Each structure stands twice: as C-alpha cells, then as structure tokens.
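<instruction>
Derive structure tokens from the sequence

<record> Sequence and structure tokens follow
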Amino acid sequence: MTSEAESMTRDHPAFARYFFREDFPSFKDMVQSLNSRSSEALKFNVQCADYGQRPCPPNQWITIDRSSSSIYTIYVCPNTFNFKVTLASKPFDSSENGWCRPPHLLKDYVPQARALLSRMIRIRFQMKGIKTGDYNENDVTLLTAAGHLKSKYTTLLAQWEQTHPHQQGSPPVRPSLNPESYVASIVEFFFTRKCGKDFDPQEIIRSSTKSS
C-alpha cells in the first residue's frame, strides 16, 4: 500500500479529503520514510504476544513498545489472526465477493494491514518527538473521524484561538499530525488504484458515517 502511495498527488481525492494542500510535503516525507531502504529506514522487531501479557490488552490487534531496547517492538496480538481476510482473499472487481463491490466502508478494508500501518506511522511520529493518542482498531468512530478531521479543523482552530488568547491548552490536531489521516489516505488511494471506475471513494466516508 505504501509503495502505491508514492505516486499520490496533492490533487488526488484520496489526499485532498484528509489533508490541506500545504500538508503534501509532510505526506510525501512520511510515505518515503515508510518505504525507505536506507540507513534511516524504520527498524523494528515483530513478536507474537498472548492476551493477558502487558503488550496485548483486550480488543487490541497490534501494539508497540520500546521499553527494553532502542529498537521498537511491534507485538502482534491473537485478535489479528481471528480476522482471516487479506488482500489475496478477494478479487479486485465488483463481483459479489470482490473488493470493489460497494458499499466501500473504510473499517472493512484489511484491518490487519491498516493496524500495522497505523503502528508504523506512530513509530515515525515518536521518532520525531511527536506524541499521538491511543488507537483501538475497533473504534469505528475514530476511523470515521479521520475523514472529517480536515473539514472540522479550521473551525475548531478558530474557536480554540478565540477561547485561548494566550495559547494555553492543546489546540485541535492538524490532519498532518494525525496518524489515522495517513492511514485512511493510503488505504483509500490503494483501493482507488486497484478498483478504478468500480470504486467510489466518497462512499468510504459517507457509509462509514452511517454505520458509526
């Protein structure tokens, strides 16, 4: 998915829906860092973990930890293996069992890959000293909110500036600082490329809103 995102443009709906035009350099930098093979590439260990262990609280699919070494560890929790759908599970067409058949609900698109992508992006943010909030893969509201964050940001920022004239407190999160904006954009772009005319990107947001 991230390799496909290398060809994203700032005018593509899958970018414009989640980011402002001036966020494009940040988006490209994130995608390139995820795909990098250089010495600055993202390095991490992957380990399976059982429920009840500290890394795997209930309802989590994938978690990250950096307590014992300088390299991050990505823990794959049992819930990941309870969901059998992978990219190879369905054809990329609009047949009854195809990936391209509507409705196109973001929450239904390869949650294991989406969860891993979210964790990798969060590690990137942490490496830059940027804190991000907790994430639960079952939180449909959060997935839906990623699609509306951009449209709400300007209004929320204006309200915050008016009520916090001395800039105290935390301002609303800009889309370029929200890991789920990147996840939603990359996933939407991937399926847009794979499904072509059979895929209606608008339906990801519209249908997710109805189901939340």
Remarks:
- The chain has a mean pLDDT of 74.
- The chain has one domain: 4-211.
- Residues 4-211 form a domain with the Collagenase (Catalytic Domain) fold (CATH 3.40.390).
